[in-house]
Amino acid sequence: MQTITANNYSVYFDSIGYETLASLLIPSHYSKIFILVDENTSQYCLPHFLNNLATEIEIEIIELEVGEIHKNIATCTEVWSALSELGGDRKSIVLNLGGGVISDLGGFVACTFKRGIDFVNIPTTLLSMVDASIGGKNGVDLGNLKNQIGIIREPKAVLIDTQFLNTLPQNEMRSGLAEMLKHGLIFDKTYWDKFKNLKDLNTEDLNVLIHQSIQIKNNIVCEDLTENGIRKSLNFGHTLGHAIESYFLENEAKKNLLHGEAVAIGMILESYISKEKDLLSNAEYHEIKYIINDIFDRIDFSKLEIEKIIDLLIYDKKNEFGKVQFALLDGIGKIKINQEVDNALIYKAFEDYNA
């Protein structure tokens, strides 16, 4: 697949990615390579990656526990300490081999160690391929509040190897699909339409869709790296989705939702809000709701749970001057940013979802 060029880096695919990485990782460029993995990617992805990695530089592996619950400053401290103890310096490089947590946290650690060292993202989940590894956002959660601490700084490169997808369970694949669906809804109706017959898609079709999804996000980010304008469109489904995800993270009685599972619910809710604000037709709304519900399991929300989720919106990182800002659909394939929504309409969206 064709290389995608971003502002200050490129996204490489399969063998071209490994060839590019080999040309980057030479002793005159870097003193030591640190590969950041979690328990899953250490077992299922690291052997394949090392078999394809050509370098003479010394390699150290740093392994983290699995899960969003570990995406915090405490884990960063552990990684910073490991980098120091293992001889990391200003000419070290971090290779983030994993999903969204590894991409987000690994990038943040690299950006802040020794005031910033280079890093490369090698995403191993569908979600991280089409979202977390692209665009230069790096950060961690503050308690259960999503992505409150971070920095925007682009990686040295991104390497997409779709063979890693063979290691994923179905729920992780669905989680990544949520971001791909979002890209169609906010930017390209023709792309969205391709998901109407998801069961008919083969592996090659999926690879093409992944490439197109990355291209859509990259086009938006290249226009607005620091999220002052059009990049806010990528937040569709995330204002309520992040609040839902945070609520499930902080409640031990609840089974944690994957990021894409929470965003899928958020997209249905925010599509309803778009409809009620006369931005989206009734037919478009029901099409979105049907397709997303056909892929993802539904969850029932009690009145108390809805209230607690709405309370979490105050912590959304997109808020300005104390007001919650939504990105809403202006028809399928178009978006309106900086939209204010009152709590009564959010309640109605949840009621419709529950129904």
Number of strands: 11
Major sheet attributes: 7 strands, mixed
Overall 3D shape: globular
Structural class label: alpha/beta
Oligomer: single chain
Task: Give the count of structural domains.
Answer: 2
Main sheet: which strands, in order across? 1-2-9-6-5-3-4
User: Unreliable segments (pLDDT under 50, ≥5 consecutive)?
Assistant: none
Topology as a string of helices (H) and strands (E): EEHEHHEHEHEHEEEHHHHHHHEEH
Let me know the average pLDDT. 95
Regarding CATH, which class of the largest domain?
Mainly Alpha
- The fraction of residues in strands falls at 15-25%
Number of helices: 14
Kindly state the percentage of residues in helix. 40-55%
SSE blueprint:
Layout: E1 4-5, E2 10-13, H1 14-24, E3 32-38, H2 39-44, H3 46-52, E4 59-64, H4 73-85, E5 92-98, H5 100-112, E6 118-123, H6 126-132, E7 137-142, E8 145-152, E9 157-160, H7 170-187, H8 189-193, H9 203-223, H10 238-250, H11 259-276, H12 282-295, H13 303-312, E10 326-329, E11 335-339, H14 343-354
Parallel strand pairs: 2-9, 3-4, 3-5, 5-6, 6-9
Antiparallel strand pairs: 1-2, 7-8, 10-11
Describe the structure.
It is a single chain. By secondary structure, this protein is α/β, with parallel strands linked by helices. It has 14 helices and 11 strands. It has 2 domains: 164 residues, Rossmann fold; 185 residues, Up-down Bundle (Dehydroquinate synthase-like, alpha domain), CATH 1.20.1090.10. The chain has a 7-stranded mixed beta sheet with strand order 1-2-9-6-5-3-4. The protein has a two-stranded antiparallel sheet with strand order 7-8. A two-stranded antiparallel sheet has the order 10-11. Helix 7 runs parallel beside helix 11 and helix 10 packs across helix 13. The longest helix has 21 residues. It starts with a strand and ends with a helix.
